[in-house]
Amino acid sequence: MQELNLPPFDYKIKQAEASPLIFDILRKKYVVLTPEEWVRQHFLHYLINVLHYPKSLISIERGTRYNSLQKRTDLCVYNSDGKPHVLIECKAAHVAITQDVVKQVSVYNQSLQAKYVVITNGLQHFCWEINFQTKQYIPLAQVPAYSLT
């Protein structure tokens, strides 16, 4: 797998019949190691080990509804009240982060209303703070670290 612009971590990989698997510390099982999963696992460990988000506040591929469509979020961090706080969309390293990707995440966030939105392909990371009253996306230089407030 490609080296990413995220801190390394001690990952566990094993070979299955059809494809390699990587251990997911949240789901507590091995999952198929796709290029997108490689990015997701790196970003998950970054959230926990560097930004200090508690594992108990993070979900992977949770279903959400937008209009009548069922969607899945790659990663979502919740606040202590159980409301979405950071929505993270992971793409494979070879996938460019385009306006269409930003639009996709914005659509997901219409129903979730997370305060922060992050898009990453493991090489580039973009983060915005969302002001729902003014409908503004404020670019941030980095993903905010965990805070009790």
From TrEMBL:
One function term, GO molecular function aspect: endonuclease activity
Keywords, in A-Z order: Endonuclease, Hydrolase, Nuclease
Pfam families reported in the protein's UniProt record: HSDR_N_2 (PF13588)
Domain of life: Bacteria
The Type I restriction enzyme R protein N-terminal domain, residue ranges: 35-144
InterPro entries the record matches: HSDR_N
Name listed for the protein in its UniProt record: Restriction endonuclease subunit R
Lineage of producing organism: Bacteria, Pseudomonadati, Bacteroidota, Cytophagia, Cytophagales
